[in-house]
Amino acid sequence: MAAENHYELYRQCSIGLTLVDTLDDMIQEGRIEPQLAMKVVSRFDKAASEVLADKVKARLIFKGHLDIYRFCDDVWTFKIKDVNFKLDNGSTIQAEKIKIVSCNTKKPGEQ
């Protein structure tokens, strides 16, 4: 069985950080081996990507001022200031600044 690699983006969200902290504590206490923790985090990466791709159907429109953009290793990064979001239900949200990271669904070399 080939190993599947998924982007590690969701490790930086609150649930991902909490998972990693908890696994680190469990390793320090000798309750699990580091290899098991790596498997758990790898499965989290896969599950987060799949669930968001399959279950989230909401859309939004946003406008703002593009401050910085870059493209490196097939990953786009945008930093936008003074952003207004319009949600599907018609409500609006404002943010001073946001960062958007956009990756291909397949990593380079995958078919």
Which helices and strands, and how do they pair?
Layout: H1 14-28, H2 34-55, E1 60-72, E2 75-87, E3 92-103
Helix pairs in contact: 1-2
Walk me through this protein's architecture.
With 111 residues, the protein is of the alpha+beta class. The protein has helices at 14-28, 34-55, and strands at residues 60-72, 75-87, 92-103. The protein has a three-stranded antiparallel beta sheet, with no helix packed on it. Helix 1 packs antiparallel against helix 2. The longest helix is centred in the middle third of the chain and has 22 residues, at 34-55. The radius of gyration is 18 Å and the shape is elongated. The model has no long low-confidence stretch (mean pLDDT 88).
Brief write-up:
With 111 residues, the protein is of the alpha+beta class. 33% of the residues lie in helices and 34% in strands. The protein is built from 2 helices and 3 strands, in the order H-H-E-E-E.
Structural class: alpha+beta
Provide the spatial order of strands within the biggest beta sheet. 1-2-3
Report mean pLDDT, rounded to a whole number.
Answer: 88
How many beta strands in the DSSP annotation?
3
**From N to C, what is the helix and strand string?**
HHEEE
Task: Quickly list its features.
111 residues; alpha+beta; 3 strands; 34% strand
